[in-house]
Design brief:
By secondary structure, the chain is of the alpha/beta class. It has a single domain, classed as NAD(P)-binding Rossmann-like Domain (Rossmann fold, 3-Layer(aba) Sandwich), CATH 3.40.50. The protein binds NADP nicotinamide-adenine-dinucleotide phosphate.
């Protein structure tokens, strides 16, 4: 099991090297980094790494206590971390918070959009649950945009900055049971695809990091459902930090790129494969 954990990034096609403190520091020392989802999981670990590398971190989530504990831990090590509680489902509050951050600190150097929520539920269990879709659209799509707008306005005004979306391979490999989650994640990714050229023209870099499974509170309820290893939080944070250092446009495993290419060339093929699996009685 330990071996599987160690080689999981290689098995899953996730590159991690190049995201160490020395790689990240030149991008973040003395700069403001806004990190959503900083109260736990991947966002928390990325926030810790950024603070250790010399960034001033604004940590956003609902969990004020968890953010406060992280602030105390980071400050005890000499780092800078500010607690900014927010429920991303409240878009108006998200925009207000973004404006307040800019008003207080100026344009951020970096925004990591890492907050997220997932729901595993098949369509035949969802007919009476439109609120699942509304909820995930709020947390994973509309809230992050509402927060990003004032931050991006300030970044483009300065002609520099970097927006990173921590997303999922399910955007490339749609999987039964994840319609609300994949729909909201893909909508945010599509928004970034449309906006990235304008942001780039204004000097702001955009990166999507599409991760496979990571062992966090989010994936715990469906752990063991799929016969694949999960990344550890550290391994996922490595991939995000590598993106901070190298600023690629898109990070995803090779097999997700291949799946995306197949879907482009043969629309419907994935549906037929999954339909065969479902008819055979396996509900992923
Ligand atoms: N875990 C995986 O297998 C996996 C795989 C691929 C991609 N991802 C992506 O990675 C990102 C981080 O996921 P994770 O695994 O680290 O999940 P996690 O451990 O469950 O953490 C989720 C974070 O999002 C915050 N959040 C949730 N709802 C929120 C809301 N309404 N308003 C503000 N913040 C909210 C949570 O804080 P509060 O609860 O305190 O608000 C928490 O900090 C997500 O975008 C996810 O889609 C995860």
């Amino acid at each position: 099991m330990a071996v599987t954990k160690t080689i999981a990034p290689a098995l899953l096609g996730v590159r991690r090297a190049g995201g160490g403190p020395k790689d990240v520091a030149p991008r973040v020392v003395g700069r403001l980094a806004v990190v959503t989802g900083a109260s736990r999981g991947i966002g928390r670990r990325v926030a810790q790494r950024l603070a250790a590398a010399g960034a001033r971190v604004v940590g956003i989530a609902r969990g004020e206590d968890a953010l406060g504990r992280l602030r105390n831990q980071i400050q005890a090590r000499g780092g800078a971390f500010e607690v900014w509680p927010l429920d991303l489902r409240d878009s108006a509050a998200a925009t207000r918070l973004g404006e307040q951050v800019v008003g207080q600190f100026g344009a951020p150097g970096l925004m990591i959009s890492c907050a997220g929520h997932s729901i595993h539920r098949h369509l035949d269990e969802s007919w009476d649950r439109p609120h699942d879709f509304t909820r995930l659209a709020g947390v994973n799509h509309l809230g992050p945009i509402a927060l990003a707008l004032p931050l991006l306005r300030a970044m483009t005004g300065r002609g520099t900055g970097h927006l990173i979306s921590v997303s999922t391979v399910m955007v490339d490999v749609p999987t039964p049971g994840w319609t609300a989650y994949t729909g909201a994640e893909a909508a945010f990714e599509a928004w970034l695809d449309a906006g990235a050229p304008e942001l780039r023209a204004a000097g702001v870099a955009v990166t999507s990091v599409r991760l496979p499974r990571v062992a966090t509170a989010m994936s715990a309820p469906t752990a063991g459902r799929y016969p694949v290893p999960a990344l550890s939080v550290d391994q996922a944070a490595d991939a995000v930090c590598r993106a901070i250092a190298q600023r690629p446009r898109l990070v995803r495993p090779w097999w997700a790129s291949a799946a995306g290419a197949v879907a482009g060339l043969a629309p419907g093929l994935t549906d037929r494969v999954w339909a065969t699996v479902l008819r055979a009685g396996w509900r992923p």
